[in-house]
Queue: 2 jobs
Job 1
Amino acid sequence: MKKLCFVIMGYGKKTDIYSGETYDLDKTYLNIIKPAVEESGLECVRGDEIQESGIIDKSMYALLLHADLVIADITTFNPNAIYELGVRHAVRPYSTIILKEKNDSIPFDLSHNKIFHYEHMGNDIGATEAKRCIKELKLLISNVTAKPETDSPFFQYIPSIKPYVLSEEEYSSVIKELANKEKHVFAIVEQAKKEMNSSNFIEAKKLWAKSLQKVENEPYFIQQYALSTYKSKDPSERTALHDALNIINKLDPNNTNDPETLGITGAIYKRLWLLDKDIEYLNRAIEFYRKGFQINNDYYTGENYALCLDFMANEETNNEERIYYKIEAKRTREKIIEIINEIFEQDNFEQRNDIKWIYATYSICLFALDKKYEEYEKKFYTTITAEWEKETYEQSKKQIINLKKQEE
């Protein structure tokens, strides 16, 4: 799940009360802040995208407390933006970035804070300046999110104060209310993710469908719509799988190198094979998983590629072909272990959002190769957030156990 960046600032054209200069702040958001945040891998939401009015409400307070990062543009000293920045500083010791147009002075109370400056031409941001700011803001976002340091004057002066923590129940209630209003796709997507974490895939697929009504042809939404559809088994498992195939085909899996699309397509065909035992389904599953692994060294598609090879070896009557499938499965798992060992050594490993699946894949590959796997299985179990994640892992493990029994 992506981290959330909440942006507080004035909207549209605003005039600086001290200099008399007018700036189109929407240009700052669209040309600098939003691209820098999204290229940093965070979800970007501005206040007006979730508000019913210009008045701060409980959804604003919830996001000011909950957001992993807040960016506050105080250009023109918009009263609402200054107030919201104060709320953020009062509840979060760190992970707040302040932006301001380079001209004019800075209020004394904020003069000790680090402030990111940019140059605005009034009606727009220059292309060169926008490019510079995006690059430098991305670096700042990376530093702030990787190594949190106290940036709130309130917590700097009174470090003994304990910050308030918004409960998951309170936050979920706010997100559900926003999603029901269908005010912004952000809330619909957040609610869809929560339904998936609760294994409520029927409701999740409805929400992903709604998100696609607001943002057509968004690959991530299509992928999650397909995933929740086949996992819903609604109205039946077979029908849900064919529905999911129709959805993922919008991303043209035969002509893509995207590992997520290839992985979901392979998963659909694998489940169709398990259901109907039509060998062509297994052939297609192998092809999509193989492509995802060989092009991108993607560990997830690689592990499923190896499992499908084991399935095929069990079906094959030609002994030479059977041996080939088993050897290829073994080599694939050994290669995956090498790939993941390199991932473990990366400096930013702890910041990855796929840690649970790295542990799951590593454990499954070690288990299949009759090596010690228990340590990584335990690590996987400590990182899961949804029951279906555990079920997916244990199903793969059970399938390997059954294959080994058939070989005895």
Note: The mean pLDDT is 88.
Job 2
Amino acid sequence: MSKFREDTPVERMYNGILKENPTLVLMLGMCPTLAVTTSAVNGLGMGLATTAVLMMSNMFISMLCKVIPNRVRIPAFIVIIATFVTIVQLLLEAYIPFLNQALGMYIPLIVVNCIILGRAESYAYSHKVIASFFDGLGMGLGFTVSLTIMGALREALGAGKIFGYAILPGIYTPISIFALAPGAFFVLAALAALRKAIWMRKPRKRPLPEGCGADCATCGISGCVGQSAHSSNVVKQSAEKAQGIISDHKEGK
């Protein structure tokens, strides 16, 4: 369970970046993830473009959820998403042409990116506008962080640079496989495994079971939070009682 209250901006950001990261946890949007992360700049650019589309499409779909008929919701989602993808592409072409050229066809393909369609269907269509906006922002930032880290690692190992700047000594021999498609799979697998290992180290507490009356003394369900606390209290009280009996016995002597 999340430590934040559900559907708040902080919880949505936490969910998208860490808990349900679209790249490292949900494994969505693998086509651009593997294709464009040959450098940190490409990964950052693709992630930010997707984030902008996610935020705006989530917000508009949430606003129009009562207007869009349920039978045609998917075509309506695609029209809304395509509108914002076109805006993003035109802005990139006008102001950042080198990035638009580097990303190529993967910018138009944002329209059918399963991250955006998935959030529209599973969250934005049934939640309020503000929560949907921050859900898009959280998912987009999670996607951006993952792609940027992947691009930085592949660029560093495959070319000895990060963001175009040399970071490794001249004697370093680049590992060319990381600049190719197989290197993307290796880096993705390593990051997903690292994230899983770190996440599994976090302590977990089981919630109280549904319908629990908080009567731990007669409860037959083991492993819940209340039962664990009750067991600790019983042990503590028994130790204190035993200590008191020993003290009384010594004083009696």
Note: The first helix runs from residue 9 to 19.
